[in-house]
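Supplementary Text 2. Reproducibility record for the structural model of the 327-residue chain.

All settings were left at their defaults, and a single model was retained for analysis rather than an ensemble. We include the record here because the model underlies the residue-level annotations in Supplementary Table 4.
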Amino acid sequence: MEGLPSASLLKEILINYFNEIEGILGVAICDRNGFIIASESKQENEEESDEIIGALSAMLDSYIDRIKAEFGTSDSFFNITSTGDKKFVFSSMGPNSILTTVAKHSTTDIELKVYSEHIASKVELVLSTNEDVSPKIPEIIKALSKTRGGQLPNIAGEYSNKLILTGDYKVGKTSLIRRYIKNKFARDYISTIGVQISKKVVELSETTKMNFIIWDIGGQVQQMAPYRAKFYNGANAAFIVVDRTRSGSLSSVEKWFNDIKKSISRNIPMVIVGNKSDLVDEIVISEDELKEVAKQRGMHYIITSALTGENVNDAFLYIAYRVIEHL
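Retained model, structure tokens:
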């Protein structure tokens, strides 16, 4: 691990992973051929630590061919295997790595899925030579891991979720959607006039799928005012997107929040998304400010970067689980 240019960042990410889930015993980052790139163990005793890492290595050796056969060249996958009194978790969120975790059998499946996929996403960003990845785990991930009493969704079937993205113009709504749908980022800015609709199917479990219908609503306040109520109609969830480099976009949260509430009478999950977090030197809206504004309105928040992809999947996944909970 010492030879990696981002070794210290990877170590900090893995330590934070340990600190969030009490039942984790060891974790390893390996490439798609099973070669271990980095590893950490919670055991203080060196001999016990070696045993845990040894068990991880043995599981990788025995399962790497099965993983290749089942998931092929798929960029992302998740699998839990129970062996005796332990759970082994394999999670990948990109082509460069597999995050392997060994945990106590009492550790809940949803904790392992939510946290391991989040950590696997961070690892992919770091290994793609992105040094600005935050090692912190967002509050929204902690909230997501507590859904449904620790169980993965078991409501078999396919469900539709109309998600609306609101916020001032040029906050990055379209870029967030493009990153989520296509895993791409375009530097050229083209203002959304009216509304654009995108779709994506997400597998929440082996038997549960979520059909996202994502409405990207233009941020022109006056011009679009007569039409927004129609755009909001039937929404199951909403993002209010904030540009962290423009202080005025945080002040606009109340306007967008009230606008949604006026058009949708029932309570729907809403999240403040603090975007453009990669522009570190230009940020004027702190995470604490986002947290306070969200708390005042009974919402969660998450900081994202459409440019790097950091926390983007997590934001959409949180909404998917929240919608399932309301079924």
